[in-house]
Amino acid sequence: MINKLKLIKSAINAQKKAICPYSxxxxxxxxxxxxxxxxxxxxxxxxxxxxxLCAERVAIFSALTQGYSKFEALAVVTKDGAxxxxxxxxxxxxxxxxxxxxxxxxxxxxxxxxTFKLLPQPFI
Length: 124
Ligand code: THU
Description:
alpha+beta; 5-stranded mixed sheet
């Protein structure tokens, strides 16, 4: 059973910690692992702008480095409820597969979609 609200709250907390001095666009992500743990990510920006990394990929890469490799759901929070970018969709598809994705706002409003709706015919 996925506790959607818990996952969203965790992404909201992560969003507050984003390191985004150039865009001031905070993004928080939280990943539910197959053993019920929640791991977070937030966007980390660089002075050399393109080397910035999105919250979703920080969450997934951080999880992989910690030895987690099976994921049940992902929540993403932005101020306006934006969907993950194309690069993140690729990494989600490759490393998490077709999981539920909760796209939320800081007030906990969300829509639910999934990986293959966001990235049909993935290169995986
Ligand atoms: N960003 C994310 O963290 N996730 C996305 O899916 C799209 C964009 C970040 C990158 C950058 O720090 C800021 O949002 C503005 O583009």
